[in-house]
């Protein structure tokens, strides 16, 4: 029980003090998990991260689940995950409760007018960065273009795009290794 | 049964959104289109708030969307729905401790999925741009093609893109800066 509580508290602290999720969390995870608690080695954390990144779901949650499971099985993974989401639940609920009261003020409206532009720029920038990393050949470019157009203009469900592109990836690799 | 519906929709999001927080955006947009629980504009505000508050972005978004849809219990069900697939999948992987990401079939699937995820986030970004940079409704009203473009917003957009590539600062600085500019220039 003590160990579960410690998992909860440690991940709670990580959830409360990291901004931005994903990679922004890595230094904090290293400090808390590797250096302070010695729950995993640096290499293991990198492994968890790589696996967390290419499995469905939120990277931070996947990593928390992994470390929790290694320590205390399924109850450990639930304690670590619960700790990670707890600060978000509290902070965001409070913001959501009061945001409606503020959003009609002119100053808040103008601020969010500007903020929305920044969000558009941040998303556009992420897409540009991801393009360089994810599109390696003409098939990649085709999958990128097709899923963009299908979801943006034809209202195709993103789930379908993920399933089809995974199948395409597997089939193409099979065909290529078969041809060799 | 709204809570069950929220749980199922976020379970699907958690199961198919690969690559972290921002990857949930196209799925949330899809939920907004189908159920009308929140608007596109609210979604962008949520993203801004999620990026500038602590915690994983995906969880912050799920909490916010869940709260908007069905208050506190809605937030709880959204978060539980979103993390459940992660817990199941990771526990399975950890249990067998297979080098999941090195398995050739998995690598092949991700060879296809990565560009698709980029396309999905691009599509979500296009929706964000429609709301924040362009003014389609004004154009439909006036039929003046110039009314589509919000010059102030496009200018700010270009400046932020430039600065983002020049200085690798945390997004929160750009969001705060844009808020100040929004107030001064009445966006």
Q: What is the total tally of β strands of chain A?
A: 0
Q: Determine Rg of chain B (CA atoms, Å).
A: 19 Å
Number of helices, where a helix is a run of at least 4 consecutive DSSP H or I residues of chain A: 7
Strand content of chain A: under 5%
Which two protein chains have the largest interface (Cβ within 8 Å of the partner's Cβ), and how many residues from each? A-B, 97 and 105 residues
The major β-sheet of chain B equals: none
What is the alpha-carbon Rg of chain A in Å?
21 Å
How many structural domains in the coordinates of chain A?
Answer: 2
Tell me the series of helices and strands of chain A, N- to C-terminal: HHHHHHH
Number of strands of chain B: 0
| Low-confidence blocks of residues of chain B | none
Low-confidence stretches of chain A at least 5 residues in length (pLDDT < 50)? Answer: none
How widely separated are the two ends of chain B?
Answer: 39 Å
Give the terminus-to-terminus CA distance of chain A. 55 Å
Structural category of chain A: mainly alpha
Q: Strand portion of chain B, in percent? A: under 5%
What does this structure look like?
The complex is a heterodimer of chains A (180) and B (187). Helix content of chain A is 83%, strand content 0%. Chain A is mostly helical and 180 residues long. Chain A folds into two domains: 2-102, no CATH class; 133-180, no CATH class. The N and C termini of chain A lie far apart (55 Å). The model of chain A has no long low-confidence stretch (mean pLDDT 86). Chain B has helices spanning 2-16, 25-35, 40-51, 57-96, 104-132, 136-142, 151-166, 171-184. Chain B has two domains: 2-132, no CATH class; 135-187, no CATH class. Chain B is globular and about 60 Å long. In chain B, helix 1 crosses helix 4 (57-96) and helix 3 crosses helix 4. The relative contact order of chain B is 0.11. The interface between A and B is large, with 97 and 105 residues.
């Amino acid at each position: 029980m003590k160990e579960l509580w410690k998992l909860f508290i440690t991940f709670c602290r990580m959830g409360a003090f990291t901004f931005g999720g994903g990679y922004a969390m890595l230094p904090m995870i290293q400090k808390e998990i590797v250096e302070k608690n010695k729950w995993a080695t640096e290499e293991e954390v990198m492994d968890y991260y790589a696996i967390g990144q290419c499995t469905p779901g939120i990277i931070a949650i996947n990593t928390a689940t992994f470390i929790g499971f290694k320590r205390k099985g399924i109850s450990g993974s639930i304690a670590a995950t619960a700790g990670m989401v707890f600060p978000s639940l509290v902070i965001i609920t409070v913001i959501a409760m009061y945001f409606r009261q503020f959003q009609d003020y002119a100053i808040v409206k103008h601020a969010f007018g500007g903020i929305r532009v920044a969000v558009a720029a941040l998303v556009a920038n992420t897409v540009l960065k991801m393009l360089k990393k994810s599109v390696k050949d003409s098939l990649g470019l085709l999958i990128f273009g097709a899923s963009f157009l299908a979801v943006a203009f034809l209202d195709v469900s993103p789930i379908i795009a993920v399933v089809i592109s995974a199948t395409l990836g597997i089939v193409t690799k099979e065909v290529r290794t078969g041809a060799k | 049964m709204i809570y069950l519906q929220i749980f199922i929709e976020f379970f699907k999001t958690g199961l198919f959104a690969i690559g972290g927080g921002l990857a949930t955006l196209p799925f949330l947009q899809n939920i907004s289109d189908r159920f009308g629980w929140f608007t596109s504009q609210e979604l962008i505000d949520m993203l801004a708030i999620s990026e500038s508050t602590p915690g994983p972005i995906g969880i912050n978004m799920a909490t916010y969307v869940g709260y908007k849809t069905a208050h506190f219990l809605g937030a709880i069900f959204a978060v539980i729905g979103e993390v459940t697939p992660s817990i199941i999948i990771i526990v399975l992987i950890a249990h067998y401790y297979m080098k999941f990401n090195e398995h050739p079939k998995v690598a092949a699937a991700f060879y296809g999925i990565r560009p698709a995820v980029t396309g999905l986030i691009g599509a979500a970004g296009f929706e964000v741009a429609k709301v924040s940079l362009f003014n389609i409704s004004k154009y439909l009203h006036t039929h003046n093609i110039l009314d589509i473009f919000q010059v102030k917003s496009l200018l700010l957009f270009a400046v932020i893109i430039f600065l983002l590539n020049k200085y690798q600062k945390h997004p929160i600085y750009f969001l705060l800066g844009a808020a100040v500019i929004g107030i001064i220039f009445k966006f």
